[in-house]
C-alpha cells in the first residue's frame, strides 16, 4: 500500500445499510481505487457480535485496500483519528411513520457522537449523516462539535437526487447519463423539492422537454419525495443498498470533486443563499471543489419553486425548534 490509510468510521455497522456499505468502502469505491482504508465500526453492545460477523466476511474478501477493521461500542474510541464518519446508526422508521417521528429517539444518539467527533477525530474529518431525520441529526451532531468547522457536517439527500434522476430519465426515455443539473432542495423528507426547472437533458431544459406541469407536480415530485415510504411498503424494510450507494456517491464527490458542467445535491449548513435561513442544514444544488461544497449560485427561482423550497425549509426550522426545546442544540 503506497498511501497512508484513511480512517473511516461507520456507525450502525451491523444494520442493513451497514451491510451494503462496508464492502463497497473496503473495495475502494468510497475514496478511490488507490486509497487504503482503515475501518472503525461503531455498534450498540447487543449488535457487536453481528458486526464481528460482518468483519469476518470483510476478511474473507481479502480486499487489497483494507488495512484493518476494528469494532467498538464506545463512540469516543470509534471516532479516534477518524477522517470520514458515516453516521448511519439510528432507528429506521416503520410503516406509517414520518422521519420526523424519529427526532426524539434518534436525537439522543447524535449528541454523544458529535462530542466524540469533537474530542478525537482527525483535523480534516468529514461527517455524513444518513440516519433519519438526517438533516436535523446532522445539526445536533454539529452543535456538539464546536471545534470542527460547521461545513464538515453534511446530511444525505443524494439518494433523493439519484431517485429523481432515474424517474426523469424513465419519463423522457433517456439514460441517466443524459441528465445534468437536477436539484433536491430542503429536507430529506416528504417536503423535499426535486427541481427539474434548471435541469438539462441532452443540453436542453428538462422541464420544457417534459412539457407537462401536472406530471411534475402530481407524479414526479410525490414519487421522488415518497419513494422511501414506497420502498418500505414493498420491501417491508427501508431502502438499504440504494442508501449505501448514495452515501458512496456523496462522499466520493465531496472528497474527489464533482464533474465539470454538472452539479449534485447535498445538505449542509446554509449561508443564507436562496433565502434559506443561515445555520440550518438544507439540501442545495452543489459542486465540490478542493474538498469543499459550494452552493451553485445565480439560479432563477420562480414562484412555484419558491413555494416548494419555503415549505421544506419551514419544516427544517420547525425540526430545529423542536430539538432546541429538547435541549439537543
Ligand atoms: N438519508 C437517507 O437517504 C436514508 C436514511 N436512512 C436511515 O438510515 C438509518 C439506518 O437504516 P438501516 O441500516 O436500514 O437500519 P437498521 O436498523 O438495519 O440498522 C441500524 C443499526 O444502527 C445501530 N445503532 C443504533 N443505535 C446506535 C448507536 N447509538 N450507535 C451505533 N449504532 C447504533 C443498530 O444496532 C443497527 O444495527 C435509519 O435512520 C434510516 O431511516 C435509510 C435510508 C435512506
Ligand atoms: O424512508 C425512510 O425511512 C428511509 C429513507 O430515508 C429513504 O428511503 O429515503
UniProtKB/TrEMBL annotation:
Pfam families: Ldh_1_C, Ldh_1_N. GO terms for molecular function: L-malate dehydrogenase (NAD+) activity. The keyword Magnesium does not apply. The keyword NAD applies. InterPro entries: L-lactate/malate_DH, Lactate/malate_DH_C, Lactate/malate_DH_N, Lactate_DH/Glyco_Ohase_4_C, Malate_DH_AS, Malate_DH_type2, NAD(P)-bd_dom_sf. Residues 7-146 form the Lactate/malate dehydrogenase N-terminal domain. Belongs to the LDH/MDH superfamily. MDH type 2 family. HAMAP family: Malate_dehydrog_2 (MF_01517). This is Malate dehydrogenase. It comes from Halostreptopolyspora alba.
Amino acid at each position: 500500500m503506497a498511501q497512508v490509510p484513511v480512517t473511516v468510521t461507520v456507525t450502525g455497522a451491523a444494520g442493513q445499510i451497514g451491510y451494503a456499505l462496508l464492502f463497497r468502502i473496503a473495495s475502494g469505491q468510497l475514496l478511490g481505487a488507490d486509497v487504503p482504508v482503515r475501518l472503525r465500526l461503531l455498534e450498540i453492545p447487543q449488535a457487536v457480535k453481528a458486526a464481528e460477523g460482518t468483519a469476518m466476511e470483510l476478511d474473507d474478501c481479502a480486499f487489497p485496500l483494507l488495512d484493518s477493521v476494528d469494532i467498538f461500542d464506545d463512540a469516543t474510541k470509534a471516532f479516534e483519528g477518524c477522517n470520514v464518519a458515516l453516521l448511519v446508526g439510528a432507528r429506521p422508521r416503520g410503516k406509517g411513520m414520518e422521519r420526523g417521528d424519529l427526532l426524539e429517539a434518534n436525537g439522543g444518539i447524535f449528541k454523544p457522537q458529535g462530542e466524540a467527533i469533537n474530542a478525537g477525530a482527525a483535523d480534516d474529518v468529514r461527517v455524513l449523516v444518513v440516519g433519519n431525520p438526517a438533516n436535523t441529526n446532522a445539526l445536533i451532531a454539529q452543535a456538539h462539535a464546536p471545534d470542527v468547522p460547521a461545513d464538515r457536517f453534511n446530511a444525505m439527500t443524494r439518494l433523493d437526487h439519484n431517485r429523481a434522476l432515474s424517474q426523469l430519465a424513465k419519463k423522457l426515455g433517456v439514460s441517466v447519463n443524459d441528465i445534468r443539473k437536477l436539484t433536491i432542495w430542503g429536507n430529506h423528507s416528504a417536503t423535499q423539492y426535486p427541481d427539474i426547472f434548471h435541469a438539462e437533458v441532452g443540453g436542453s431544459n428538462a422541464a420544457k422537454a417534459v412539457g407537462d406541469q401536472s406530471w411534475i407536480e402530481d407524479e414526479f415530485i410525490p414519487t421522488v419525495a415518497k419513494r422511501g415510504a414506497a420502498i418500505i411498503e414493498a420491501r417491508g424494510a427501508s431502502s438499504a443498498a440504494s442508501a449505501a450507494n448514495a452515501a458512496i456517491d456523496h462522499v466520493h464527490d465531496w472528497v474527489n470533486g464533482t464533474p465539470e458542467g454538472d452539479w449534485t445535491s447535498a445538505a449542509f449548513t446554509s449561508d443564507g443563499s436562496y433565502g434559506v435561513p443561515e445555520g440550518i442544514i438544507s439540501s442545495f444544488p452543489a459542486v465540490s471543489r478542493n474538498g469543499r461544497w459550494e452552493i451553485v449560485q445565480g439560479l432563477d427561482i420562480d414562484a412555484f419553486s419558491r413555494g416548494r423550497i419555503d415549505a421544506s425549509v419551514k419544516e427544517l426550522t420547525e425540526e430545529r425548534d423542536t430539538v432546541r426545546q429538547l435541549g439537543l442544540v
